[in-house]
Specification:
By secondary structure, the protein is mainly α. It contains twelve helices and two strands.
């Protein structure tokens, strides 16, 4: 009798051990973006200030909790809001405090207000930052060269980030975008006559680490199919090249702002067509 009892207890114990030894995927991205913040600030002082970054994080998480409770009658998991807040805190540059509050509110609010068929279209931080730099460029800028383009810190982040993104099955998006960016960088160099090193240099900066690992891979705002996700990543890089040739300072943010929602809406339209096609053929 004792042996069957032990056999019955073994699976739950193994499951509990596995849970303890493995990290919930929801915590991987917050842990990784926190590492980027700590390493970047201790090495290069990338933050505008601790209070501004803390204000962005607190505003994002408070807005998420309040809106989630009001709209869905439940408390949402704070991981997504934390990523949004810390992205705003790292990427936004302003001497004032209010842009960090407004950008965080715009970012989180877009998830609940700008929805189609119960699906939000924009990556939250991309939406908030793109709107702010477009509407108040005299007050708000973004992180660009403040961290420089040192190779070794970026290489460590790329390796760790690639492992995490591979684990959550999003590595193909990052890889497609990076390959496309490099190809278009050489094309821009040929078209403009600028050194190719200057064209590919932004890819090693901190802004692009956040953009590549967190914005274009956002599970809630990417199309479903793997091939579609790769196509969208390619189109974002293509739109970014066009914006760069037009001398747009914030080309990657505007490119994702335009391409991402358009791809989501196109997928929704195709989904709406499939049942009609199936019924018509039947």
């Amino acid at each position: 009798m004792s042996q069957p009892g032990k056999a019955m207890l073994a699976p739950p114990l193994a499951a509990r051990t596995k849970r303890w030894l493995s990290l919930d995927n929801r915590y991987l991205a917050p842990a990784f973006i926190t590492l980027i913040l700590v390493a970047g600030h201790l090495s290069y002082g990338i933050l505008e200030s601790y209070p501004r970054t803390g204000l962005a994080i607190a505003t994002s998480m408070a807005a998420e909790l309040v809106l989630g409770r009001l709209v869905y009658r439940k408390w949402p998991h704070p991981a997504s809001a934390y990523i949004t807040g810390i992205s705003v805190g790292i990427l936004v540059r302003s001497p004032a405090y209010w842009p960090y509050v407004v950008c965080s509110l715009l970012s989180i609010g877009s998830k609940y207000v700008l929805r189609v068929r119960d699906r939000h279209l924009w990556n939250p931080s991309n939406f908030g930052i793109a709107v702010m730099v477009f509407l108040v460029p005299a007050t708000v800028a973004t992180l660009s060269i403040q961290w420089g383009n040192a190779l070794w810190p970026m290489l460590a982040i790329w390796i760790l980030g690639s492992v995490i993104i591979w684990r959550v099955r999003r590595f193909h998006i990052c890889a497609t975008y990076v390959v496309s960016f490099l190809a278009f960088a050489f094309l821009r160099s040929w078209m403009t006559g600028s050194p190719w090193q200057a064209e590919i240099a932004p890819l090693t900066g901190p802004m692009y680490q956040l953009f590549i690992f967190f914005m274009i891979t956002d599970p809630r705002t990417t199309v479903r199919s793997k091939s579609g996700q790769c196509l969208v990543a390619f189109l974002v890089a293509l739109a970014e090249m066009a914006l760069r040739l037009a001398q747009s300072v914030y080309a990657p943010f505007y490119a994702l702002f335009l391409v991402g929602p358009a791809a989501n809406l196109a997928e929704m339209w195709l989904d709406s067509r499939r049942p009609k096609t199936a019924s018509a053929s039947a």
